[in-house]
Amino acid sequence: MGMYAPPKVMTNDDFAKIVDTSDEWITQMTGIKERHIAEPDVSTSDLAAEAAGRALDDAGVAVEDVDMILVATATPDMFFPSTACLVQSKIGAVNAFAYDMGAGCSGFIYGLTIARQFVTTGFVKTALVIGAENLTKFMDLTDRNTCVLFGDGAGAAVITPGDAPDGMMHQVLGSDGRLGSLLEFPAGGSRMPTTVETVQERLHYIKMQGRKVYVNAVKAMGDSVVRVIDEAGLTGDDVDILFPHQANIRIIQSVAERAGMPMEKVYVNIDRYGNTSAASIPIAMAEAIREGRLERGMLVGMVAFGAGFTWGALLVRF
């Protein structure tokens, strides 16, 4: 695994100079203290390529041996070509096929599950799954309820064949498009093409009905983590470490309680990165490896919820 976050950091106090907010309020409501911000000329594919290179180095895998690149992102460089193809070019993975996937904050779990199918059928020997986001470029700095939440970064994992009991064990995926309007990026697509009016109405920014998203996230993530543990015939005591999507500290605490796990078993870095959407889980996992908190043989849980709505949970024997 590998991760990359741009060096520029923006604190809550920095935001308090721009919008009517405070460090105390942001910390109390979300758990966020700071987030990394990509410079204007840094694209999502730039972040993803950095994380991908670090993951390949960590795995000891040559870039020429990569067969598949999947980039989970809600903030692609452009509609086309895909961000994955741009990453392929930047890292020199000439033998890979590449494509993007949009599942919001659940993207990394969706991506791992998809890569697993390719690898277990034998069609792919080495897959590169990347969660990468450049969310701060789409923050409305006049909306204090959303602009303080997001950060930029990327995380990547190299997936290859293995022998049981190691590897991906069980997964749960779900979605409910009926609730999609609660968290959306309204304009710029075929439903609402870019016009002078859509720009003036500030429709090219993230729009979120925060309270409703929060309620649905707590339920879906809690249900998912309980279900994936139950269906694997395990309990929360069996899971060594849980990596929840880093969206809100209160959601994370609620999920841990539902899973029957103490917070000591739950990895939290939302205070330093904010919500990095599809990048949040791989960033956390790569950090945990570096810190010695994630080691070979551990039973690892992941759980996420995102725009769509989408959600998922995954168990891995690392």
If you had to describe this structure to a student in words, what would you say it looks like?
The protein has 10 helices and 13 strands. By secondary structure, it is an alpha/beta fold. Strand 12 and strand 13 form a beta hairpin. The termini are close together.
Class from secondary-structure proportions: alpha/beta
Overall strand count: 13
**C-alpha termini separation:** 11 Å
Total discrete domains: 2
**Rg calculated over all Cα atoms:** 19 Å
Shape: globular
In the CATH hierarchy, what is the superfamily of the largest domain? Thiolase/Chalcone synthase
Average pLDDT for all residues = 97
How many strands, which pairing sense, and closed or not: the largest β-sheet?
5 strands, mixed
Q: Strand share of the residues? A: 15-25%
Main CATH class of the largest domain: Alpha Beta
A few lines on this structure:
Helices cover 33% and strands 21% of the residues.
